[in-house]
Each structure stands twice: as structure tokens, then as C-alpha cells.
């Protein structure tokens, strides 16, 4: 065997190393999960082939987009963005104290930390559409229900990431301030918050983008905004108007994401 062939043989041996029993069982279970998921989805090539003409018919009726109601669509889009911003800001404000209570090393008591983490996880795991249904029943149809749903959803995400950011801060300044008798509040605002501020900003921008996308869907259940217009357009088979709404939503989401990306580059 030549000297040049030996390294290739060693590399091939390392790349295709024999899997352990645990790896083999895990891979088998993952494959079984994928097969089981597809079997329950009722997705089939026959359904897709049968649906292609209908999809073509809908797309054909969408063009050209109807711009006759553009002013009312833009007004509803503005309402949607207002819902996203107000719900996100309220959620971010309420996330901070909850994150302090949930952060290891900052929470006043382990029981309080567990309860705060449980509440944040509950807010995060319940989908925003369900929160919207809940608040539509509680406060009635309209943007107020959407704002409250987005606020709860933002607390679920921002609360977790704020708490993790504060736990990962450098403990040196914290210990130095504690040694000279600083209060817990002074310690948080003098050592923890400045250190975690870049992460706070990144999380906040992500929440604004997420709330903008979510606010469109919330209107489908009566929480106000452009989603109501989109649902009515589809219910009335007014597909050309629906395309106008979809394009307007696309433009709004892209604009918010571009502004967020620009702010990240300049601030972080």
C-alpha cells in the first residue's frame, strides 16, 4: 500500500465509524417517528395531483390583484402594525420583572424562581391563536384582543431569553457590588442590565418581527387588523383582493425585518 493511500483510509474509517448501540437505537426511533408522522398526515401524491388544478384555478383568479380597496387595506395594515408594536412593547416591559424573578442568582427565593419560570413557559407554550380566542371572548372582537394576545406571547419568549441573558452575565461586577453592600436592585441595574443589554436589544427586535407576523394571523379569529380583511376576501371568493392583502402583508413583514436587521448591525 502506498504512503498516500493511508491517510485517505484513516479519514474514511473515521467518517464511517461504527455507531454505538445507543446511536443506532436513537436513529431507528427518529426514523420511526418520521414515518409515523407522515402516516398520520394523510398526505399522498394522489391528493396533490388532484389538487393541482384547483390551486391553478385559485392562482389564476388572483391575477391581476384588485387595487380598488387599497386605501382600506392599507388602513387595516396600519391597525395590524399598531397591534404588533403596542402588544410587543407591553410584553417587553412586563417581561423584565418576570425575568428577574426567574433568573438564577437574582430571584429572591427558589420557589419564586420555579413559579416565574413555570408562568413564562405556560405563556410560551400556549399558541398565540389560542390566546387571541381567549381574549376575544373576554374583551370582545377588535384590536384590543390582539394586543393582549401579542403581549402574553411576547412575555413567553422575551421572559425566557431575558432571564437566560441575565444568568450568563459576568458575575465579577455583581460580587464586587455585593461586597460593598449594594442592594439587589442596585446590583441588577448597575451590573446585570448593562452587561445583558446587547442580548435584550436582539431579543426585543426579534419579538417585534415575530409580533408583526403573528398579528396578521390573529385577525382570522376576530382579533382585528388585516387578518379580518383577508378572511372576508377568501370567504367571498374575492381572490384578487386577497392577493392585494397578501402582497401588502409581505411588504410590511419585509420592511420590519429589514429595519430590524439594520438596527442590529448598527447597535450590536
Polypeptide structure, described:
Helix content is 82%, strand content 0%. It contains 11 helices and no strands. The radius of gyration is 25 Å and the shape is globular. The N terminus is likely disordered.
In short:
The protein is an all-alpha fold.
Question: So how many helices?
Answer: 11
Structural class: mainly alpha
Largest sheet: none
Give the overall form: globular
Instruction: Output mean pLDDT.
Output: 87
- Span of the ends, CA to CA: 55 Å
Percent in strands: under 5%
Number of strands: 0
pLDDT < 50 runs, ≥5 residues: 1-5
Percentage of residues in helical conformation: over 70%
Radius of gyration from CA coordinates = 25 Å
What is the H-and-E element order? HHHHHHHHHHH
Q: What keywords describe this structure?
A:
268 residues, mainly alpha
Annotate the secondary structure layout:
Blueprint: H1 5-15, H2 21-41, H3 45-62, H4 70-102, H5 110-125, H6 128-139, H7 143-167, H8 171-179, H9 184-218, H10 226-235, H11 239-267
Helix pairs in contact: 3-11, 4-5, 4-7, 4-9, 4-11, 5-7, 6-7, 7-9, 8-9, 9-11, 10-11
